[in-house]
Each structure stands twice: as structure tokens, then as C-alpha cells.
Backbone:
């Protein structure tokens, strides 16, 4: 069991978290305007339509920006430092806030190609993280 805080699963995000548990990255797409979005919401922030569909992401992208955390005393995070927190620009054109794992933080650069993988935090929760390609 993880010491890290677990995400809150609600009706808007349930499909996302169920797919993540299967190690699939799902995005929402608006059926009315075609805009992709992440994080899950009941209404499209682009056109305010409630016509939502889930789409499997290719899971590839590039590092848009990042920071390296060297100090964090919060339970579940203190033992993970240093870690990389990044915005990844997915091929679908949207950004996702995530961690870059299994890489030397000193080697991380904006624009590097990454691919999704999953970290199992609990029996019912897996989170998407990214590795360098």
C-alpha cells in the first residue's frame, strides 16, 4: 500500500481511473467541437457541451516544462526526492501534469520525447507517469 495520497475518484473521473488501473491513458474528447481535455470534466471548457467521449491516448509526447524537487517533507514524498514534476505535451495536443521516472533529473530537457507508463499505488489506483524514449 502506498504512503502517498491517493486521488479522489468521483463520477466525472471514474472512467479515467478505471482505465489507468488497466494501464491505459484515457482522455476526454468533446463530441460537439472535437477538443481533447485532461482532467476529466462533465462539460467541455471550450464550447460548454456535455457531449463527452473517452478516447485512448497514444501515450506519447514531449516534455513541455519541468522542475526537479529536491526537498519535500510530506508523507509519501520525502523518500522520493529528487523527483521530476513535468507538464507533458501529448500528441493529442493537450498537456498533462505528471512525473518523469527512471531518469537522472540532471539529464531531463525540454522537448525530450516521452511515453506513458503506470505506477501502481494501491490495488484500485494506478497513476500515469512518463519515461524518456
Residues:
Amino acid at each position: 500500500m502506498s504512503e502517498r495520497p491517493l486521488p479522489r475518484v468521483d463520477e466525472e473521473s471514474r472512467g479515467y481511473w478505471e482505465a489507468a488501473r488497466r494501464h491505459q491513458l484515457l482522455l476526454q474528447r468533446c463530441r460537439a467541437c472535437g477538443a481533447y481535455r485532461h482532467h476529466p470534466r462533465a462539460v467541455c471548457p471550450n464550447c460548454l457541451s456535455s457531449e463527452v467521449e473517452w478516447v485512448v491516448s497514444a501515450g506519447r509526447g514531449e516534455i513541455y516544462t519541468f522542475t526537479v524537487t529536491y526537498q519535500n517533507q510530506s508523507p509519501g514524498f520525502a523518500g522520493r526526492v529528487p523527483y521530476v514534476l513535468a507538464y507533458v505535451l501529448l500528441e493529442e495536443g493537450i498537456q498533462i501534469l505528471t512525473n518523469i521516472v527512471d531518469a537522472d533529473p540532471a539529464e531531463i530537457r525540454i522537448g525530450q520525447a516521452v511515453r506513458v507508463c503506470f505506477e501502481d499505488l494501491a490495488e484500485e489506483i494506478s497513476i500515469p507517469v512518463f519515461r524518456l524514449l
About this structure: The first strand starts at residue 26 and ends at 30. The two ends are 29 Å apart (CA to CA).
